[in-house]
């Protein structure tokens, strides 16, 4: 006969626990998506030094401005992770160690600025890389479509919640009658 499972005395299995950094990265992505819904991206300020980050990134990575900002619209992961790309990014990132809190924490970013977060549209970057791309996307209007998508998604969620609430109230009234 099998013994009764006692959740109070159960041990966490390694494969079940989520690493804290992954949970924080997902929470950060959700918070950012919620911001994109509520605030026009062109008005969004992500750090106290957005201007410095933007200007420094555009100077250090002039290819971000090429082809109508193609590498900002759709992140070229191969370019970032090439040997020369890794070195350039490492040098860039290090300069923010004392300027930006959590500068090297992991963050999830949408690879294509025109789409929402999804399994196929997300990569893992450092926080300062997230700021580089998202500050530039916001300033250049590359997140305008994401803003509209986030607002549409929120409206659908609100409508769904209202329908569920009305259904629950109707059910409650029906039970009260009986």
Would you kindly provide a written description of the structure presented here, covering whatever features stand out?
It contains seven helices and two strands, in the order αααααββαα. Mean pLDDT is 88; it is low at 12-16. Strands 1-2 form a two-stranded antiparallel ribbon. It has helices at residues 20-38, 50-60, 66-73, 77-81, 83-94, 127-139, 144-177; strands at 106-110, 122-126. The chain is elongated. The longest helix is centred in the C-terminal third of the chain and has 34 residues, at 144-177. It has 178 residues and is mainly alpha-helical.
Span between N and C termini? 45 Å
- Spell out the helices and strands N to C: HHHHHEEHH
Number of strands: 2
Specify Rg, calculated over alpha carbons.
22 Å
Supply the key terms.
178 residues, mainly alpha, two-stranded antiparallel ribbon, 7 helices, elongated
Short description:
Helices cover 57% and strands 6% of the residues.
Give the topology, please.
Elements: H1 20-38, H2 50-60, H3 66-73, H4 77-81, H5 83-94, E1 106-110, E2 122-126, H6 127-139, H7 144-177
Antiparallel strand pairs: 1-2
Helix pairs in contact: 1-7, 2-6
């Amino acid at each position: 006969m099998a013994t009764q499972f006692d959740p109070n005395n159960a041990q966490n299995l390694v494969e079940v626990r989520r690493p804290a950094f992954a949970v924080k990265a997902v929470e950060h992505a959700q918070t950012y998506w919620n911001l994109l819904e509520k605030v026009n991206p062109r008005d969004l300020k992500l750090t106290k030094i957005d201007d410095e980050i933007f200007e420094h990134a555009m100077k250090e990575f002039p290819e971000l401005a090429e082809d109508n900002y193609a590498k900002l619209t759709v992140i070229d992961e191969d370019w970032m992770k090439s040997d020369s790309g890794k070195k350039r990014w490492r040098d860039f990132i290090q300069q923010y160690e004392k300027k930006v809190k959590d500068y090297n924490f992991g963050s999830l970013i949408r690879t294509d600025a025109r789409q929402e977060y999804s399994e196929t549209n997300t990569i893992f970057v450092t926080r300062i890389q997230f700021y580089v791309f998202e500050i530039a996307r916001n300033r250049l209007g590359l997140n305008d479509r994401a803003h509209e998508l986030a607002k549409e998604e929120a409206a659908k969620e609100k409508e769904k919640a209202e329908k569920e609430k009305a259904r629950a109230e109707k059910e409650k009234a029906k039970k009260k009658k009986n």
